[in-house]
Amino acid sequence: MLRYCVIGAGHGGLALAGHLGVMGFPVALWARSPAALEPVRAAGGVFLEGEVEGFGPVRVAETLAEALEWADVLLVALPASAHREMARLCAPHLRDGQRVLLLPGRTAGAVEFAHVLREEGCTADVTLGEAQTFPYASRKVGPCHARIHGVKRRVLAAALPASRTGELLAAIKPALPQFMPARWVWKTSLDNVGAIFHPGVTLLNAGRVESTGGAFRHYVEGITPSVAALLERLDEERVAVARALGVGALTAREWLAEAYGVERPTLYEAIQATTAYADVAAPSHLNHRYIWEDVPTGLVPIASLGEACGVATPVTDGLIQLANGLCGVDFRETGRTLARLGMAGWGPERISQYALEGDVMGLV
To answer: Hey, what long-range contacts does 214-218 have (CB within 8 A, 24 or more apart)?
Structure first.
């Protein structure tokens, strides 16, 4: 039986490790914060509640080197803003035959991870890929307790290059059968609805977040009809960028129908009807991954791809500028622009070819 290692002990990683343990798979857990692992080590695993209930035995890895030596499959359940650093840390320890899945990659996660591995001189023959989204809506509710609000019915994943997607999913589907193959990583990357549902809502509710400490529900109360209307304009830009690369991206409404079985005539109505979102709290502060992850690894690469493909993204650009002003940083300097992905000056054809064929013909 394949051995899985979950990297990250936050909302997603804790739930994923616990669920794998509940299902009887050998699973280890490693996190950048040793303090986050101590309660799991003491309990011997993770307690789950919600849509999945039970106790999942979980092995705690002392070091990343130990985790990678033990595992066949590495499931990276970290904010996408940590992918660059995680690739750097993993590079010396990866070995031939391992599979690495970013959960999720957000936009261009696998591309960034592969670029950093090359920069670090990693020569291991690993199968690297990304998921379009995380398989659950989940929250960490205690040091070794997680609540799974909802399990997504269908999650797309793809390898880089696309020819290795079957090999990647052969290692994932025994544990997570809802994973389905996407044509290539531009499909998983540009179906990134987190870039639609997270940063825009948080930025447009910035005053409410700060004045209430996030004492409202992110989706149900944070997304009013007018906010939803702006999100639909933002979503149209994402879909237009995808179309320019030959990707048939789902609209946010289509994605809700596929992931949760919710079909409504407007995005506002669809979000309000998604029960998995009903109790999801808003961020308690603005120093939150909904901005610090989803702007540099979602909005920035979408805008950068749009520029390379000749697609205007005024709403996306405006939200990036708003985030820059609120946070006092330049997310275009730190985010996933094509230049920082090793793709400076590339056009649509070359961008597409790389996702299909990988590092061939001197592309990188």
So the answer is: 214/281, 214/282, 214/283, 214/284, 214/285, 215/282, 216/281, 216/282, 217/277, 217/278, 217/279, 217/280, 217/281, 217/282, 218/277, 218/280, 218/281, 218/282, 218/283
- How far apart are alpha carbons 61 and 17 in whole angstroms? 12
Report which of 93, 176, 162, 89 is spatially closest to residue 128, judged by C-alpha positions: 162
Instruction: Tell me whether residue 294 is one of the annotated catalytic residues.
Output: yes
Instruction: Choose the catalytic residue: 191, 235, 294, 317.
Output: 294
Does the annotation mark 145 as catalytic?
no
Query: Is the per-residue pLDDT at 363 higher than 90?
Result: no
Which listed residue (198, 218, 235, 317) is catalytic?
A: 198
- Asked if residue 360 has pLDDT above 60, the reply is no
Provide the residue count of the chain. 364
Q: What is the pTM of this model?
A: 0.91
